[in-house]
Amino acid sequence: MTSLALKARAVLDAIGGVNNVVEIDPCTTRLRALVDNPDLVDCNALRAAGAHGVMRTGRLVQIVIGPEVDNLASALEDLM
Description:
Helix content is 36%, strand content 29%. It has 80 residues and is an alpha+beta fold. The protein has a single domain (3-79), classed as Gyrase A, domain 2, CATH 3.30.1360.60. Strands 1-2-4-3 form a 4-stranded antiparallel sheet. α1 (3-14) packs across α3. The longest helix has 12 residues, at 3-14. The radius of gyration is 11 Å and the shape is globular. Keywords: Kinase, Phosphotransferase system, Sugar transport, Transferase, Transport.
């Protein structure tokens, strides 16, 4: 696996896995994830995976990734 694929796997696991994800959308430097169960989101694991920050509002999780967000979103789609 490439480092990007490993990062994508870590992010996916940290947001509760594929069954918890409703939608993922890259936006500038952030990855927006709508999840079924926000209690499954592990903010510390997201930071350990390389996120610069995490914001949660209800079922919406915004993960600050940086300029590689589009590539990470593509890698996440490959895992789903």
